Amino acid sequence: MSRPHKSYSSVCAQASGDYTIPSLTPSAEQELLRTAQALRERRDRYEAPASLSLEEAGDIVVRLLQVIFPHFSGGCMQGTDLEARVLGLRQQLIPMVEDLLSYGAAPGPAAGLVQSFLTDLPLLSDLCHEDALTLLENDPAALSLDEVILSYPGFMAVATYRLANALLKLGVPLLPRLMTEYAHQKTGIDIHPKATIGKRFFIDHGTGVVIGGTAVIGNSVKLYQGVTIGALRVDRKDRNAKRHPTLEDNVVVYASATILGGDTVVGARSVIGGNVWLTHSVPPGSRIMFKGEHTNSFDPEG
């Protein structure tokens, strides 16, 4: 026998709270309480501080961007608003970092680390400003620096990476990874906070870009959408080894190219064409293009 059809009005009544939930029998209540206890035992397997979540990390990213760029502050800051926000970040970060240092088995002076991080914000701001200028100068579609900062996913992903990388260098665990994952969800660009990235970094369009944690990227490097700077093999025994490539200064990598391997070095001023699959080093000035099926060629003289 088929179930009776629910009318639209009855569904709306249920959604609006007019629907009466059936009472809970004692046996059903005991069953749910046992379920809760079983879940509690399983939840105790995890050690991450309860104060940290992806949403909290995202809030920190937003608040940091607000004090660095007026574009994210929701209007002009009046009087001492900026100073108050910087001090507020300190109040938010210290207890979180203290919990994280204990979680990472490296307890230390959380207040000192947060102080160092916040006092480095002007330097990080300058690095991000150079990234934004590079996008403006190299993308003919960009009409202004403000447009780049407000709307370019490549800019937001790289700015978040620079903030997360600074925290990671100070020894703060977990939070930097959550910060870059927040940017990944917002932009489609996945940059591990441990990666080493030089100045004037350019990611255009950006969707699908992946940069691994042991990648080394020089100054004035340009990447387009779908580029992977990844590992040739994925094995946990190699987690402390250099698994991702090195891109030297002024390298350009076009859309959907894949460059793999910790021993792979792309020499300075090289151009890697779209859809190339590269797992070996190439000298400076190389031009690597996809020609037919599985064919790469390079011309060291350009």
Overall description:
There is one protein chain. The chain has nine helices and 15 strands. The protein is of the alpha/beta class. The strands form three sheets. A six-stranded mixed beta sheet has the order 3-6-9-12-14-15. Strand 14 (287-290) and strand 15 form a beta hairpin. Helix 3 packs across helix 9 (175-187). The longest helix has 23 residues, at 81-103. The chain is globular, with a radius of gyration of 25 Å. The model has no long low-confidence stretch (mean pLDDT 89).
User: Would you tell me the structural class of the helices and strands?
Assistant: alpha/beta
Q: Quickly name the level 1 CATH class of the largest domain.
A: Mainly Alpha
- Named at the architecture level, the CATH assignment of the largest domain is Orthogonal Bundle
- The 3D shape can be described as globular
Distance between the termini: 75 Å
Average pLDDT for all residues: 89
Output the strand order for the largest sheet: 3-6-9-12-14-15
What is the CATH homologous superfamily assignment of the largest domain? Answer: serine acetyltransferase, domain 1
Q: Please give the largest β-sheet.
A: 6 strands, mixed
* Total separate domains: 2
Write the CATH fold name of the largest domain.
serine acetyltransferase, domain 1
**Tally of alpha and pi helices:** 9
Strand content bin: 5-15%
What is the CA-atom radius of gyration, in angstroms? Answer: 25 Å
Low-confidence segments = none
